[in-house]
């Protein structure tokens, strides 16, 4: 299933309002969500037309889909892709209130598309999951996040950051972890993607 789980230090109603505010997706997820228009709203049902930036094969740089969302506050947002090529694809965002946080099992339309094309173990699927999780940390919880693709270079102030190479490090438990450095397209200097102010 194209989903990931997390806990957020916010009340469940705030989390539900956040994820059901579909028109904010292009603002929250600008790397991938190019456009999201609500074409019909009736009771708890919302139908959208969405355009997501993603490379699928040699000739496709974005995907347009029609989606029906059904809201079940405060615990669930169901969706179904209506386009012929992926018609009937269904999934949901599920929320569960806990003592000091909200547990979330999250799936989104672009994750479904990437899973269909590349599989759950692909690098692009992992990268997209991480991007959405980081953006939610910022916009839902108000946390600071690491540098991202397209950010201005903190060194030369002229270039833009792009994805660099993956590196490996050994943790105290001798587990190998991957991390990525962002590289400036002008001065070629790097920053760690997991922390603003951590320059290399």
Task: Tell me what you see in this structure.
- It contains 4 helices and 10 strands.
- The radius of gyration is 18 Å and the shape is globular.
- Strand 3 and strand 4 (60-72) form a beta hairpin.
- It has helices spanning 12-20, 25-28, 109-118, 123-139; strands at 4-8, 33-42, 45-56, 60-72, 76-81, 90-97, 102-106, 161-170, 176-184, 190-192.
- It folds into 2 domains: 4-139, Alpha-D-Glucose-1,6-Bisphosphate, Chain A, domain 4; 146-200, no CATH class.
- 22% of the residues are buried.
- The termini are far apart.
- The longest helix has 17 residues, at 123-139.
* CATH homologous superfamily grouping of the largest domain: START domain
CATH class of the largest domain: Alpha Beta
Strand order of the largest sheet: 1-7-6-5-4-3-2
Number of domains: 2
Helix content: 10-25%
Count of DSSP-assigned helices:
4
How many beta-strand runs?
10
Q: Would you tell me the structural class of the helices and strands? A: alpha+beta
Q: Which descriptor suits the 3D outline? A: globular
Q: What is the CATH architecture descriptor of the largest domain?
A: 2-Layer Sandwich
Mean pLDDT: 83
């Amino acid at each position: 299933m194209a989903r990931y789980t997390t806990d957020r230090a916010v009340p469940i109603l705030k989390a539900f309002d956040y994820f059901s505010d579909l028109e904010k997706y292009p603002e929250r997820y600008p790397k991938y969500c190019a456009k999201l228009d609500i074409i019909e709203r009736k009771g708890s049902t919302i139908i959208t037309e969405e355009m997501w930036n993603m490379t699928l094969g040699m000739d496709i740089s974005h995907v347009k889909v029609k989606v029906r969302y059904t809201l079940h506050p405060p615990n669930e947002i169901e969706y179904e892709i209506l386009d012929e090529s992926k018609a009937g694809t269904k999934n949901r965002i599920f929320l569960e209130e806990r003592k000091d946080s909200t547990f979330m099992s999250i799936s989104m339309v672009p994750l479904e598309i990437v899973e269909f094309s590349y599989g759950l173990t692909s690098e692009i699927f992992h990268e997209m999951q991480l991007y959405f999780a980081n953006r939610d940390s910022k916009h839902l919880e108000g946390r600071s996040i690491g540098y991202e693709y397209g950010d201005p270079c903190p060194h030369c102030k002229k270039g833009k950051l792009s994805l660099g190479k993956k590196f490996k490090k050994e943790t105290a438990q001798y587990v190998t972890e991957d991390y990525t450095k962002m590289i400036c397209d002008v001065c070629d200097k790097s920053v760690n993607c997991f922390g603003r102010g951590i320059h290399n």
